[in-house]
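ingest -> validate -> predict -> emit
validate: passed (alphabet ok, no gaps, 118 aa)
predict: started
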Amino acid sequence: MATVQLTEDTFDEVAQGEGIVLIDFWASWCGPCMRFGPVYEQVSERHPDITFGKVDTEDQPALSARFDVRSIPTIMAVRDGVIVYAEPGALPEKSLENIIEQVRALDMDEIRQKLGQS
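emit:
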């Protein structure tokens, strides 16, 4: 699956659904973002069951502010509408795959219980 561009209008609909959504907060002037982009695209091709979204921080400053994105790239993982990971930094392919593995392995009932969302 190719990556999808997320905007203020589409973000909640995509991120609050069932399943896993990975989000790359990036900008065209950011060197590390541009180097990470192809890695993100390549990994997205191997995981068609995951939605891979991209937020252009220049075009969508309100989303950056909403999630307090202070450094880019920032990768966020959302599972079943719950943010389970958010960290700045371009990742090597192996690290991104590891995050996906960990997100898949989460016990979401336990997570919701800890968050008081049972």
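The two ends are 32 Å apart (CA to CA).
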